[in-house]
Every structure is written in structure tokens, then in C-alpha cells.
Amino acid sequence: MRVAIVGLPSVGKTSLFDALSLGEHKSQGSYQVKVVKVQDPRLEKLAKLYNPKKVVHSTLEFVDTPSIDPKAPQKEKIRTFSAFSKAEALVLVLRAFENFSVPFPEGCFDPKSQLDRLLEEFIFRDLEICENRIHRLQNAKRKLEAHEVWELEMLERLKNYLEDMVPLNKVELTEEERKKLSGFNFCSLLPFVVALNTSEQGLKLEESVETFGDYPMVKFCGALERDLAELSEKERSSFMEAYGVKEPVVQRLTRVIYRHMGLITFFTVSEKEVHAWTVEENASALEAAGKIHSDMARGFIKAEIMKFKDLVEYGSERILREHGLVRVVGKDHPVEDGDILKVRFNV
Ligand SMILES: Nc1nc2c(ncn2[C@@H]2O[C@H](COP(=O)(O)OP(=O)(O)OP(=O)(O)O)[C@@H](O)[C@H]2O)c(=O)[nH]1
Ligand SMILES: [Mg+2]
Hints:
By secondary structure, the protein is an alpha/beta fold.
């Protein structure tokens, strides 16, 4: 899954991206992309039990995007927006640090006005997409097909919200409607997480506020995190202690993204491989099987499910079986966070 790091100029997007250094780095066209392993202490515990040849983490892909500059010409803005067209969530970086040598994004000295400015840009862009498509449909010189009639009605509805400056992620839509709209690449439809780039002093404040303008928030200090990422493991912990940082930002950020997007983790285990997988909350056993391999979904017969905490408590699969703690379920059974799955299939 891809997450784009976005924001106004010089707010610390690249600093945040660099701080996610545990990931493997690659360039994709003109964008920097980083694949970050999602740290999960349960995976380490399972690896201890199975002693597998391979341990595979879930991953998130982060993209560092060019800044959204309200002053930039339209063409350049569209190019910037295209940098996050494949993203499934946006991390909005807002600047709250003092640094006199770095100018604030025009007129936006406080994070709230930066958020408003950013939302405005998203909304104008989405409005433009809406209007273009509505215009094309209304001027089609033929009878519209059923899905186009649906589209026209939906776009008119969304346009009303946008004109009232409501981002589309605040509009109630069904899963199916969302899917049908995905091709439009509306940026305000994506889930947002705010990353507030504070000064070192700001970090020490107790984290009582966990949201910012209705969006979940993670606080970090770009300058500090970038240094942190360059240290050895040992140096890192004393450095973090000195600054009162409990965890590197990458871990806090991934956790918040998972929670906000309703993502859960399930595992597969064997002597060969212990593997963490990501699915949406309420995914069925069949959908989970499909994550592992399309053949497993195609030839799905049943799945056996163990609970992570049972396995850790009893210490082995064999003992769980003796206690009747391995459940056999059908394809519609919802998978829960921490489930360990064994799929029986036949193709
Ligand atoms: N003092 C201080 N300076 C910071 C902090 N975070 C970033 N900076 C500085 O602010 C400047 C911009 O940071 P970047 O991370 O490049 O910001 P950006 O959003 O990627 O900038 P553009 O991509 O150019 O829009 C750099 O000179 C950083 O060193 C911070 O937490 N504290
Ligand atoms: Mg940058």
C-alpha cells in the first residue's frame, strides 16, 4: 500500500521521508519511494516459536512528493498531484518548528492555516476534475449509459460538497461508491493523517492532543528524527531518551495509518516462513487467503485459525489442538487482528 507525504513548501516532507530510514530506498521516475517494514513485536515472538528460515514483515510504501505551492502555475500543480495519484492515504506535513533561515510557506505561519491552505488546494483540484467530467457527460452527443447517469448524479452531489469547501473524505459514501470513484484520483477523498513537525521543545510537551482538525495526528521533530535515523541502534536509544522521544516517528506513523485506515494484521507460520499480512478490518477468510495467493482463494476449502495470544500462552500448535483452540472456519468467517491462518485449498 502506498502513502504519499504531502505539504506546502519547506515544511519538512523530505526530512520526514529521510527519517523513515529503516526502509529500502528506490527512485521511481522523478519520485523517491521507500518501502518500510511495519514493525510488529508479535512477528518476533512467532519467529522465536517457529525458528523459520525467513521472517517477512508487512510493508508500507512512502512517497516523497514535490511541495504543493499555491503560487505555482496550474500545470506544475497538476504534476504534483499526479505524484500521489496511486496513493491510498496522505500524510499531511504541517510546520510548527522555528527556523529563521527557512521561510514559512507564504502567509501560513501556524499549522492550522497551512492545513486550510492545503485543503483548499485539494478541493480546487477535485472540483476541477468534477466539473470537467460533468461538462463532458452533459455535452455528450449520445444517450448516456446507466453507469454514466450514475456518475453524473454522483459528481453533481460531490461538487456541492466541494463548493462548500468540504473535503470528500468527510462525505458518507458506501464501499462500492468509493470503488467506482477511485479512477478519478480525487485527493480529498483519501484518508488523511497529519504529521506535525514541531520544534524539539514542542516534542517534550505531553501528547494530549492526538487529532488535528479532525484528522489523526503524529508529532515529530524533523531535524531530530533525521539525526536519529543516522545513529546506531545503541546510540539511538540514549539520544531518544535525552529528547523524550519514546519511539521513532516511523513506528508511530504506521500505527496511526493502520488504525485510521481500518487495517489489521494476520499471520501465516511454518518452519520455512513466518509472515505478516495486512487486510482490511472484517475481511473474510477467503479475502485473506487471496492476499497470500490467488490459488488459495480460487481453491479455498476451509481455514484453520489460531489466536496469537493463545499460541504464545500455550507455546505450541500441538497443545492448542489438544485444547480445541484451533478453529476450522469457512470462507465467510471474518479474520481478526492477530489471527494465525492455515488455508486448506485445492486447485
Ligand atoms: N529547525 C528545524 N528545521 C527543520 C526541521 N525540519 C526541517 N527543517 C529544515 O527545513 C528545511 C526544509 O525541510 P525539508 O525536509 O527539505 O522540507 P520539504 O517540505 O521537503 O521542502 P520542499 O520539498 O522543498 O518543499 C530544511 O532546511 C530542513 O533542515 C525541524 O524540525 N527543525
Ligand atoms: Mg522535499
